[in-house]
Amino acid sequence: MDALRVGSRGVEMGQGKESGVKILVANLGSTSFKYRLLDMASEEQLARGGIERIGSAQSDCFVEIGDQRTETTGQVRDHADAVQICLEQLTDPQRGCLADAAEVAAIGFKAVHGGGVSGVQRVTDSVLEAMQEMSPVAPAHNPPYIDAMRRLAERFPSIPLVAAFETGFHQTIPDRLKYYAVAREWGDRWHIKRWGFHGASHRFIGFRCGQLLDDQTARVISCHLGGSSSLCAMRGGRSVATTMGMSPQTGIPHNNRVGDFDPFVLPLMMRATGKSLEDVLADLASRSGLLGLSGLSGDVRDLEEAAGQGHADARLALDVFVSEVRRYLGGLLVELGGADLIAFTGGIGENSAHVRAAVCADLGELGIDLDVDANAAVQSESCISTDSSRTQVWVVPTNEELIVARQAQALLNEG
User: Fold this and answer.
1) Cys-Cys link to 393, which of 182, 247, 257, 385 (CB 3.0-4.6 A)?
2) Cβ(134)–Cβ(114) under 8 Å?
3) What is the distance, to the nearest Å, from the Cα of residue 140 to the centroid of all Cα atoms in its chain?
4) Beta-carbon neighbour count of residue 126 at 10 Å?
5) Which long-range contacts (CB under 8 A, 24 or more apart) does 62-70 make?
6) pLDDT at 14 over 60
7) Is 235 a residue whose pLDDT tops 80?
């Protein structure tokens, strides 16, 4: 695939690769650190690894280099320690793939929300301050990234840190789909807009689907369904509409986050439960979604198994999820005037034949006709629509790390 070029209009497809540049892509959770190391000369994954339960007495670590996997345990205090362990793994004389940590040209982050700061940025104090301002609307994402970035900048000052904001891909969405119907000042002064997220995933899907169709002007709808879910309508690989709004809690219900919700319910629930605003928001951000509806789990695999055994609330959670995906899919089809290809990606999109079938059920009048056998037999990237379907339907595994690595490389090339 072509490399990415960062220009005044954002990130576009360009030509050329920097031989030998190695980018470490970091994916952070509040107590986890996952990474992939890519050689940008070939865009080959050299290694991947991760650490779970950071900050606890016993952390679990793993690294995969080639066909060798090593697992260890021990205390990892913070994310800076996690990166130190990562670099030690990668430079291990017996099993590593780097001669020296200095071979890492940059650490790229799939950053979530910087408000007015978006696109691809070198991590600076001003970038971190912008992320801090958005922490109230991205409480599960921004705080661990901010903390890790600060610690890494102190521990490894010679390694550039690059934040590739998920909101950057959606900067091409027109104002009529970006502004809320509130005072204009809210949007212009305080950045209260529909920002959209999952930008790296949707960007990859858009370009890959253009390749599959041999048409980079195609109309594509990307259905990123997983622990966090969103749909994105693209024309020519550019975002024109998406389902998430100001925060990652919006849009389709997520595994434990609410999705779209009427804000006027908040004072009612505060009075009814005696909870503070912060407590109610915490419920919406971490104890809602599929978990809240089912009272069982936020994992679709668990819910499908339970629903098959007659668990009514598990069935309700799945039905609500599918109905919301279909509702948004219909709106995006109208916005595009139809679609050339609909792609399912993410943990649910790639692995749940039941969800894909339910989303596409009875849509023949809209030109969407699923091949039942192909849908049930998916193993990797696959077309799952019939030959007569006007809109192709595919399962396309996403590659967010590759996109972030390309964006980081492009920023380094610009100096």
Assistant:
1) 385
2) yes
3) 13
4) 11
5) 63/89, 63/90, 63/95, 65/89, 65/90, 65/95, 65/96, 65/97, 66/97, 68/95, 70/95
6) no
7) yes
- With tokens 């991205």, the residue in question is 138
pLDDT at 385 over 80: yes
In whole angstroms, give the CA distance from residue 264 to residue 291: 22
Higher-pLDDT residue of 78, 340: 340
Q: What is the mean pLDDT of the chain?
A: 92
The amino acid occupying position 220 is V
Question: Which domains does the chain possess?
Answer: 4-170+409-414 (3.30.420.40), 215-395 (3.30.420.40)
pLDDT at residue 30, rounded to an integer: 65
Q: CB-based contacts of 383: which residues, under 8 Å, 6+ apart?
A: 371, 374, 392, 393, 394
CB of 243 closer than 8 Å to CB of 328 = yes
Question: Partners of 7 in the beta sheet?
Answer: 10
SS3 sequence of the chain = CCCEEEECCEEEECCCCCCCCEEEEEEECCCCEEEEEEECCCCEEEEEEEEECCCCCCEEEEEEECCEEEEEEECCCCHHHHHHHHHHHHCCCCCCCCCCHHHEEEEEECCCCCCCCCCEEECCHHHHHHHHHCHHHCCCCHHHHHHHHHHHHHHCCCCCEEEECHHHHHHHCCHHHCECCCCHHHHHHHCCECCCCCHHHHHHHHHHHHHHHCCCCCEEEEEECCCCCEEEEEECCEEEEECCCCCCCCCCCCCCCCCCCCCCHHHHHHHHHCCCHHHHHHHHHHCCHHHHHHCCCCCHHHHHHHHHCCCHHHHHHHHHHHHHHHHHHHHHHHHHCCCCEEEEEHHHHHHCHHHHHHHHCCCHHHCCCECHHHHHCCCCCEECECCCCCCEEEECCCCHHHHHHHHHHHHHHHC
Q: What is the pLDDT of residue 9?
A: 29
Number of residues in the chain: 415
